[in-house]
Amino acid sequence: MSRVTKNPIASLQGRSLLTPHDLSDREFLGLLKLAAQLKRKKERGTLGTLLRGKQLALIFEKLSTRTRCAASVATADEGGRAEYLSAREIHLGKKESTADTARVLGRMFDGILYRGYRQETVELLAQHSGVPVWNGLTDTEHPTQALADIFTVQEAFGRMRGLKLVYVGDGRNNVASSLMVGCAMAGINFVNCIPPELAPTPESLARASVIARRNRCTIDVVHAPALAVRGAHVVYTDVWVSMGEEAQEDARIQLLRPYQVNMALMRHTGNLQNGKVMFLHCLPAFHNHATETTAVSGALEVTDEVFEASFSKVFDLAENRMHTMKAIFVASLTGGGRKPRRRT
Ligand code: CP
Ligand code: NVA
Predict the structure, then answer these.
(1) Which protein residue has the closest C-alpha to ligand 1 atom 3?
(2) DSSP, res 257
(3) Each residue's pLDDT tens digit, 142-181
(4) Domains plus CATH for the chain?
(5) Per residue in 114-127, pLDDT tens?
(6) What is the value of pTM for the model shown?
(7) CB-based pocket (< 6 A), ligand 1
């Protein structure tokens, strides 16, 4: 019989988080619990020392508001220090291979958060740095987002098992892929509502379905939005054009127009009147506004009405990125809440 430790995340000490598949169900749930404890601690105004003496490198090839700030604030709250490294300003992948950069950073830092394009890059960093590496978003995965997503659902409903979450839109992007696995680990029924052209790979569906079966929940792919959202407790969407896909913008918008989250779609859940449905978006979102930097204006994936509704919990989710990121750092660097040993 295998030995079951009391602390479900002690096993995470020294480990990387590159995809949600790196976690067992028990570790995933343990991280949610630790995040809740750390959130309460912060709400009491208590700053901690769990990351005292820890130096984190934050490498960003792509833009970020939430992930970058969540990582910086989470580290500082627990007495550590985070160094932001724009990939444009370091040698990574240009004058120096990813493996060499990893070996250098691993000599100086206790952990590395990476946001960028290729999943292979975050894997190389983990392989060569000798310290925990966390995926802060690649083209294919966004595991720290998925933890915050599920945390926010649990916080709102007080439970996870038996809930139905419907992801509407680009259902094979990084956010959707990681969220599908997170739902399976949490026992949440996941519906991927997508046009056939944007279906997740059969391999990723099969792999997540194994986890779902273990936790007695389901993963379904549905193409008709009104049908997909029936009975939903959570309607989730993300941008239609992810970072790095700008060249496909026009075609993608045409394809996904029928998948916009608007009040008509929210009414199809049947849960709007009884207050049993919430809307989530990882943000940033295109909701009836023009920005200075894109040619796109007006609502794309979500209307202003839904975005600003009382059932929209998008800013709770944004805040929770910080509490859950803190849990990940604490677990990887200390095993889950133990005070760090003094360095000799
Ligand atoms: N949701 C998310 O990852 O946001 P940022 O791109 O601002 O980090
Ligand atoms: N799918 C989006 C997520 C942004 C947080 C992107 O990759 O741009």
Answers:
(1) 67
(2) G
(3) 999 999 999 999 999 999 999 999 999 999 999 999 999 9
(4) 10-141+321-334 (3.40.50.1370), 145-319 (3.40.50.1370)
(5) 999 999 999 999 99
(6) 0.95
(7) 64-67, 137, 145, 282-283
